[in-house]
Amino acid sequence: MVHEDPIANFRNYYEIAGSLGASNSEEESVFVRLFTHSLIGKAKDWYRDKHVAVDQLEHVEYKFINFFYPQSKVHDTNTAITGAT
Prior knowledge:
Layout: H1 6-18, H2 24-35, H3 41-50, H4 57-68, H5 71-82
Helix pairs in contact: 1-2
């Protein structure tokens, strides 16, 4: 479903969190603190169940996207688009 796209989730999250007007030096800290509040449903369950440490948003983003959109799914999608096997 569209609202379950992990990449779109981060795109929207960065857009909303970026509108807070935090300075460049504060931005990472603000983004990290607000991240858990952007999650709903399966994503919130993932965060709670995995006890993901939110120290650097880049690490959380990597874990989140790899859990909800693993490389095997990327390969399957690319194969479906290109028709390659």
